[in-house]
Amino acid sequence: MAVLLMCACSGEREYLNYRGLSMGMSAKQMADSLLAKIQNLAVDTHKTGETNIVLVDTLARNFMVTVYHQNDTITDILENYVATYNDSTSNLWQARHDELQKEFGWPNMGKHGDLHKEATFENEKGTVLLILLNTYSPTVSIRYSTSTTQD
């Protein structure tokens, strides 16, 4: 019993990884690391505020990453993809679903239709919500959150 208690107390919290980067780093470090790692990303100063840093794709403008933080501690990271046709978003959603399923296991599927799909992946490190909206402006959104139902 003492060994279990000692392990629980001595271990630091583990965080989700976003593109190979720990969400336990500061929001500023995350933004700088993403700018260095992903070509053609830039900070959108018009959309960046006190609680978020917005990075946009400078070539196609169809990809955006928002790092949400509280006092420079990351709370969420939101990826948004916008496409001109539904097949591209459906294929992207399925590819991301398969990748996340390998890492997290089977998701909770809140909605599962042709035009709207939601999959929630969760473990002790955090939660990932994957959403497909194939409407007038087809989008795929992926929200990585440091919060879990165990928090």
Describe this structure as you would to a colleague.
With 151 residues, this protein is of the alpha+beta class. The chain is 26% helix and 39% strand. The chain is built from three helices and ten strands. The strands form two sheets. It has an eight-stranded antiparallel beta sheet with strand order 3-4-5-6-10-9-8-7, covered by helices on one side. A two-stranded antiparallel ribbon has the order 1-2. Strand 4 and strand 5 form a beta hairpin. It is globular. 19% of the residues are buried.
The low-pLDDT segments are 1-10
Main sheet attributes: strand count, strand direction, barrel closure: 8 strands, antiparallel
The total count of strands amounts to 10
* Mean pLDDT rating: 87
Q: What is the element string, with H for helices and E for strands?
A: HEEHEEEEHEEEE
Subunit organisation of the chains: single chain
Structural class: alpha+beta
Instruction: Please bin the fraction of helical residues.
Output: 25-40%
Physical arrangement of strands within the biggest beta sheet: 3-4-5-6-10-9-8-7
Q: What gross morphology would you assign?
A: globular
First CA to last CA: what distance?
Answer: 23 Å
SS element count, helices: 3
Radius of gyration: 17 Å
Please report which band the strand proportion falls in: under 5%, 5-15%, 15-25%, 25-35%, 35-45% or over 45%: 35-45%
